C-alpha cells in the first residue's frame, strides 16, 4: 500500500555536534551552555580527561562533530596526545584547540598535531561560538592571537620541522621523555631499552643539536614545540 | 660670493632663467644658462660644474629628461612647468627627475627648493601620489620564466598544476572531465611551450618560477 | 621635525617606487628622514633606536634579507612591498617578522597611512592577506607533520635517489652516480613509492617536494 506523503515542513539542517573536553568543570559548563542554547549546535558529550574524551567520541554516531580540546589537559595524556589520536582515528571530526592566553609555541604545537584551529577563552562569547561554527565548516580559525602572533606561530611550526629533520624517530622519543625530568635509568625503563642505549642516544642528540647538556636540549625541544614544558595556560 | 648651489637652466627662451635668477639673487644659489638642449648642457658641464639642471617641461619632456639624466651623471634634474599636472609629475619622476616645480610657486621658496633638489630630495606635492602609483610596474613572475608560463593556456596550466600535485594522467582526465588523450596532448604542448623535455622538468620549472603555490591537497 | 620621528631606509629600486615611498613618508606622521641605501649595511640599523626599513621584494632581494636585518637590527621595522599576495608568501613574510606587508600596486595608495601605523609600533597586514596567511598556516602545519612522519621512514640513501630523480636522472644514471646497480635503484624507488603513497616517479617527486623533503627550486 503506497502512501502519498503530504507536503511536510522542510527538514531542518542537522545541528553541528560538539564535544567539550576540559579539566575544569566550570569551563565545560560554560561552553556547554553556549553550545546547547544556540540553534545550530548540539552538545553531544563532555569529558574531563583525554581518555574520557576518546570513550565519549567512540560512542558518538555522527560525522559532523567538532571536538573542543582544552590545552590544559594533563597527565597521563595531554592535549597534544588527544588531538593526535582524534586525527588518526577519526579524521573526519574537526578539532578546535582552546587555550587561555596560550603562547605561540603551544598553538603551533596544537596545529602541528592536527588541530583545525585555535580559539582563546578570552574572546567574546559571540566570537567563540562563531569559531566553533567555522571549524565545523572545515575552515581554519585563529581567534585571539594577533597579527604578530601569526608569524611566531608559523615560526614555531618551522622550528619543529627543523628539529624533527635533525633527529631520528627514536631520538625524538628519547628527548620527549627526557624533557619530563626522568633519569637515564627511568627513561630506559619507560622505553623498554638499556640504560646505556639511552645515554648513547642522548649523546648523539646533544651533538646534532649542538648543545652540551640535557637542559639546553630540552630548552630547544620546548622552543620548537616538540615537548610542552609546563601547562600552556 | 661663492654660491653653494649651482643651477643650469635649459629652455628655448629666457623667461625661466630670468625668473629664477631674480628669485635667487641674494640666496647663495647661482643660476646659469640658459642652454637649449642636452648637448649644450653637456658642454657647459665640462666648463663649469653644476648641481641641478632645471628643465622647462611639459607632458612631452620625458625623453629629454631621461637623456639629460643619463648624460649628466651626478647632476639632479628638476622639471618646471606652468601647472602641476600629476601625470606630468609622475612621468618626469619615471624619467629620472628629482621632481616637478610649478612656475607659479612662491618665489621666496625657490632657493630652498633648488637646494633640496641638489641634495636629492623629492620635489613633488603629496597629491601626486596616486598618479605615481599608477606608474609602478608590477611583474607577477620572473621575466624569462614568466613569459613562458604566460604562454600556457588556462587548461594547460590546470593540467600542469594537477601533475605537480602528484596526480596520474588518468586522475587528471577524471578531474577535468577530458579524455586521457586530450590530457596527453596538453602535456605535450606544455613541454613544448616551456622548452623542457620531461614532465619532471616541467614541474621543476613551475616550482622554480613560483607559479605554483603549494598544492591544495594535503 | 619631531624628536621622536623614526627614520626610514629604503633599498635602491626604480625611481618611481622610490618617489612613491618618499612621498608617502613625507605625508606619514612620525616618520623622519628618508635615506636610500644600496646594500644591507646593518651597521646603519644597529643604532639603539627604532628605524623603518622598506624592502621591495621584486628588487632582487628576497625574504632572507628580512631575516638578516631582523637578526642584526632588532629595532628595525621591516616593511616589504610585494607583487605576490598568496598565502605562502604572506605567511613566510610574517614568519620572518615583518612589520608591514604592502601589496603592489594597490597597497601603495595607502602607504602613508601604513607608515604612520608602523611608526606608532603597529604591525600592518591587510585583512584579506592575513586571512590567506592563516589558511596557509593550517596547511603548513599539516604538511610539516606529514613530512615528519614520512621522513622518519625514509633512509638517507632513498633521499639521495629521490633528489637525483627530481633532477631528471634515469635509473641507470642514478646507479652510476651512487655506485649501485640499476636493480638496487629500482628496489629503493619501489620502497619509496610505498612510503610516499604514490605510484609513479613523477608523483614521488611531486609529493616529496610538497612535503619539503626535496627542494625543486635549485
Question: Would you kindly provide a written description of the structure presented here, covering whatever features stand out?
Answer:
The complex is a heterotrimer of chains A (233), B (218) and C (218). Chain A is α/β, with parallel strands linked by helices and 233 residues long. Chain A has helices at 25-37, 50-59, 79-89, 104-112, 125-136, 147-166, 169-178, 184-191, 195-209, 214-223, and strands at 16-21, 41-47, 65-70, 94-99, 117-120, 141-143. Chain A has a 6-stranded parallel beta sheet, sandwiched between helices. The longest helix of chain A is centred in the C-terminal third of the chain and has 20 residues, at 147-166. Chain A is elongated and about 60 Å long. The mean pLDDT of chain A is 88. Chain B has 218 residues and is of the alpha/beta class. Chain B is 48% helix and 13% strand. In chain B, strands 2-1-3-4-5 form a 5-stranded parallel beta sheet, with helices on both faces. In chain B, helix 4 (86-94) links the parallel strand 4 and strand 5. In chain B, helix 8 crosses helix 10, helix 8 packs across helix 11 (199-208) and helix 9 (169-176) crosses helix 10 (180-194). With 218 residues, chain C is of the alpha/beta class. In chain C, strand 4 (76-82), helix 4 and strand 5 (100-103) form a beta-alpha-beta unit. The longest helix of chain C has 27 residues, at 127-153. In chain C, strands 2-1-3-4-5 form a 5-stranded parallel beta sheet, sandwiched between helices. Helices cover 54% and strands 14% of the residues of chain C. The N and C termini of chain C lie far apart (48 Å). Chain C has 10 helices and 5 strands, in the order βαβαβαβαβαααααα. Chain B binds chain C through residues 90, 93-94, 96, 121-122, 124, 126, 128-130, 132-140, 163-168, 198-201, 203-204, 207-208, 210, 213-216, 218, and chain C through 14-20, 22-24, 26-27, 58, 83-84, 86-88, 104-105, 108-109, 111-112, 136, 139-140, 142-143, 146, 165-166, 168, 198-203, 205-207, 209-210, 216-217.
Amino acid at each position: 500500500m503506497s502512501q502519498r506523503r503530504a507536503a511536510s515542513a522542510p527538514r531542518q539542517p542537522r545541528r553541528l555536534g560538539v564535544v567539550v573536553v576540559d579539566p575544569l568543570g566550570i569551563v565545560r559548563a560554560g561552553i556547554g551552555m553556549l553550545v546547547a542554547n544556540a540553534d545550530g549546535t548540539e552538545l553531544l558529550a563532555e569529558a574531563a580527561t583525554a581518555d574520557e574524551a576518546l570513550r565519549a567520541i567512540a560512542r558518538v554516531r555522527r560525522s559532523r562533530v567538532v571536538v573542543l580540546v582544552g590545552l590544559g589537559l594533563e597527565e597521563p595524556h595531554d592535549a597534544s596526545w588527544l588531538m593526535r589520536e582524534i586525527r588518526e582515528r577519526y579524521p573526519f571530526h574537526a578539532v578546535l584547540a582552546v587555550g587561555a592566553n596560550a603562547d605561540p609555541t603551544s598553538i603551533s604545537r596544537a596545529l602541528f598535531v592536527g588541530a583545525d584551529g585555535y580559539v582563546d577563552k578570552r574572546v567574546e562569547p559571540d566570537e567563540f561560538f562563531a569559531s566553533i561554527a567555522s571549524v565545523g565548516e572545515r575552515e581554519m580559525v585563529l581567534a585571539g592571537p594577533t597579527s604578530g602572533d601569526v608569524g611566531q606561530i608559523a615560526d614555531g611550526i618551522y622550528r619543529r620541522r627543523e628539529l624533527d629533520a635533525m633527529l631520528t624517530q627514536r631520538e625524538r622519543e628519547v628527548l620527549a621523555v627526557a624533557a619530563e625530568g626522568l633519569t637515564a635509568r627511568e627513561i630506559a625503563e619507560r622505553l623498554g631499552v638499556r640504560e646505556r642505549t639511552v645515554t648513547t642516544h642522548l649523546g648523539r642528540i646533544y651533538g646534532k643539536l649542538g648543545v652540551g647538556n640535557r637542559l639546553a636540549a630540552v630548552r630547544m625541544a620546548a622552543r620548537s614545540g616538540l615537548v610542552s614544558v609546563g601547562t600552556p595556560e | 660670493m661663492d654660491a653653494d648651489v649651482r643651477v643650469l637652466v635649459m629652455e628655448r627662451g629666457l623667461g625661466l632663467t630670468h625668473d629664477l635668477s631674480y628669485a635667487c639673487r641674494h640666496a647663495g644659489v647661482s643660476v646659469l644658462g640658459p642652454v637649449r638642449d642636452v648637448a649644450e648642457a653637456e658642454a657647459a658641464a665640462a666648463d663649469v660644474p653644476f648641481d641641478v639642471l632645471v628643465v622647462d617641461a611639459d607632458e612631452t619632456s620625458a625623453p629629454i629628461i631621461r637623456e639629460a639624466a643619463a648624460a649628466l651623471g651626478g647632476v639632479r634634474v628638476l622639471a618646471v612647468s606652468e601647472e602641476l599636472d600629476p601625470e606630468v609629475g609622475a612621468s618626469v619622476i619615471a624619467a629620472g627627475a628629482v621632481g616637478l616645480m610649478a612656475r607659479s610657486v612662491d618665489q621666496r621658496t625657490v632657493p630652498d627648493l633648488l637646494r633640496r633638489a641638489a641634495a636629492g630630495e623629492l620635489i613633488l606635492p603629496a597629491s601626486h601620489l596616486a598618479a605615481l602609483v599608477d606608474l609602478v610596474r608590477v611583474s607577477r613572475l620572473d621575466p624569462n620564466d614568466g613569459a613562458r608560463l604566460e604562454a600556457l593556456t588556462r587548461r594547460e596550466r590546470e593540467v600542469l598544476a594537477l601533475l605537480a600535485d602528484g596526480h596520474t594522467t588518468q586522475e587528471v582526465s577524471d578531474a577535468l572531465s577530458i579524455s586521457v588523450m586530450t590530457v596527453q596532448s596538453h602535456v605535450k604542448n606544455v613541454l613544448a611551450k616551456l622548452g623542457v623535455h620531461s614532465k619532471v622538468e616541467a614541474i621543476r620549472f613551475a616550482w622554480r618560477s613560483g607559479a605554483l603555490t603549494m598544492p591544495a591537497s594535503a | 621635525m619631531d624628536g621622536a620621528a623614526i627614520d626610514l631606509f629604503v633599498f635602491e629600486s626604480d625611481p618611481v617606487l622610490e618617489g612613491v615611498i618618499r612621498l608617502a613618508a613625507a605625508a606619514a606622521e612620525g616618520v623622519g628622514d628618508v635615506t636610500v641605501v644600496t646594500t644591507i649595511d646593518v651597521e646603519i640599523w644597529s643604532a639603539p633606536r627604532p628605524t623603518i626599513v622598506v624592502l621591495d621584494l621584486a628588487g632582487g632581494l628576497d625574504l632572507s634579507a628580512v631575516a638578516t636585518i631582523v637578526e642584526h637590527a632588532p629595532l628595525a621595522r621591516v616593511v616589504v612591498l610585494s607583487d605576490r599576495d598568496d598565502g605562502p608568501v604572506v605567511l613566510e613574510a610574517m614568519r620572518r617578522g615583518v612589520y608591514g606587508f604592502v601589496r603592489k600596486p594597490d597597497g601603495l595608495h595607502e602607504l602613508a597611512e601604513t607608515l604612520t601605523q608602523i611608526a606608532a609600533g603597529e604591525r600592518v597586514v591587510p585583512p584579506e592577506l592575513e586571512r590567506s596567511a592563516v589558511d596557509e598556516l593550517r596547511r603548513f602545519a599539516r604538511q610539516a607533520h606529514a613530512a615528519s612522519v614520512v621522513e622518519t621512514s625514509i633512509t638517507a640513501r632513498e633521499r639521495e635517489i629521490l633528489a637525483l630523480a627530481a633532477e631528471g636522472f634515469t635509473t641507470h644514471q642514478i646507479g652510476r652516480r651512487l655506485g649501485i646497480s640499476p636493480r638496487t635503484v629500482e628496489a629503493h624507488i619501489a620502497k619509496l613509492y610505498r612510503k610516499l603513497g604514490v605510484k609513479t616517479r613523477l608523483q614521488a617527486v611531486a609529493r616529496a617536494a610538497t612535503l619539503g623533503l626535496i627542494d625543486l627550486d635549485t
